[in-house]
Design a protein that fits this description.
Elements (H helix, E strand, L loop, with lengths): L3 E5 L2 H14 L5 H6 L5 E6 L4 H16 L3 E5 L7 H15 L2 E4 L5 H9 L4 E5 L4 H11 L14 H16 L7 E6 L9 E5 L3 H6 L5 E8 L11 H15 L1 E5 L6 H11 L2 E3 L5 H7 L2 E7 L4 H8 L6 E5 L14 H10 L6 E3 L1 E2 L8 E2 L1
Parallel strand pairs: 1-2, 1-4, 2-3, 4-5, 5-6, 6-7, 8-9, 8-11, 9-10, 11-12, 12-13
Antiparallel strand pairs: 14-15
Length: about 375
């Protein structure tokens, strides 16, 4: 078996594959490593359908090619017959891969691939805070369920349950198979799993340091779109954060709706920015505010690493229980609190206090 094969479905996954590749040959470019007969790495982009993700992925794919990696763009969701065609085209490289690298163990597409082909060596790279939940569920021997989803199985989940069950076995270490989690998050290693720190060394070595602006930047989240946070509460908190910190820009999450972003721009006067690359690269390349305020998300762990030594202050705002929708998963509050509670010690923690939802929020 030869070669290494990475499957990515988001820009952040591809960024973290680049970070992982950098750790394999620190101080050596990917091109030089390839020329030195290192094990070749091919990145397969299982392209999503939404335009924002596709655009960011195309730009990240070019960065990966510039680093000497082979990138294969796969229209895995491109209409009728795409699934069968993708499986047929990937069968040979999957069978011959010595190591498979994935960014989202909860992905139904990746789970299906793992049921068909069992890799000898498996690496899971970050695609956000879901890595924490994956490690915890793997360690407890539970079925894999995204944290923001309800616990009960719907019709689709029941049909796919055998796939998920077999994929979970393939994601666990076993005789003849090693499992590595490459992460910047505070993850407790499940039994038999190796956890390798992602310190964002490639990002720091390649970009910056950034020019700092005098104001603050806000980082958006898709918690409204995933049905976790009430839209009115979210809009009100963004307005108060902008006033409290003198923010001028709002960096949108790629899954935020156009309607919500329009409301934010009109109500707050913030410049809404849809980044063309993952925020870690945008911030490192600059310009970036001296203060970056974020809702609970991966960036409260990754930005302090990417911006180490630049003087940028990162702060995270707690999600109050009353902001959650009635339909939110029972695990949502605990999971979000865990993100803020485990953030790097350099990250300031902000708490919003309001005696009534219509009251002005105060941050302390």
């Amino acid at each position: 078996m030869t070669g290494q094969l990475a499957f990515v479905e988001s820009p952040v996954q591809l960024l973290n594959v680049l970070e992982w590749a950098h750790t394999q040959n620190p101080g050596v470019s990917a091109v030089s490593a390839t020329e030195a007969d290192a094990t070749p790495l091919t990145v397969v982009v299982l392209s999503p359908t939404d335009p924002m993700s596709r655009g960011q992925l195309r730009r990240m794919a070019q960065l990966a090619r510039d680093q000497g990696l082979t990138v294969r763009w796969q229209e895995a969701r491109g209409g009728r017959g795409a699934l069968v065609r993708t499986l047929r085209e990937l069968a040979r490289p999957l069978r011959s891969a010595e190591r498979v690298i994935i960014g989202d163990p909860f992905s139904r597409y990746v789970q299906l691939l793992l049921t068909l082909f069992a890799p000898r060596h498996l690496t899971v790279v970050d695609d956000g805070t879901a890595t924490m939940e994956f490690a915890a569920q793997l360690g407890r021997g539970e079925r894999l369920v995204r944290w923001h989803r309800k616990g009960s199985l719907g019709p689709r989940e029941l049909v796919l349950a055998p796939v998920t069950t077999l994929a979970r076995r393939r994601l666990a270490p076993a005789r003849g198979r090693t499992v590595e989690i490459f992460t910047s998050l505070p993850v407790e290693a499940p039994p038999g799993v190796t956890v390798t720190e992602n310190a964002y060394a490639w990002t720091r070595d390649t970009f910056g340091p950034p020019l700092l602006t005098g104001g603050a930047d806000l980082v958006g989240t898709s918690l409204v779109e995933t049905g976790v946070v009430d839209a009115d509460h979210y809009a009100r908190v963004v307005s108060e954060l902008a006033r409290a910190h003198g923010a001028t820009r709002y960096f949108a999450h790629r899954r935020e709706s156009a309607e919500k972003l329009h409301r934010i721009a009109v109500d707050t006067g913030l410049q809404v920015v849809r980044p063309e690359l993952p925020l870690e690269l945008i911030a490192r390349r600059g310009p970036i505010g001296r203060t970056v305020v974020s809702f609970p998300s991966t960036v409260v762990h990754t930005l302090p690493l990417a911006l180490a030594g630049t003087g940028v202050r990162v702060a995270v705002i707690d999600i109050a229980p009353e902001w959650l929708r009635a339909t939110a998963s029972p695990r949502a509050q605990g999971f979000l609190s865990g993100i803020t509670g485990t953030a790097a010690h350099e990250v300031d923690r902000l708490t919003a206090r309001a005696s009534h939802p219509a009251d002005r929020l105060e941050f302390g």
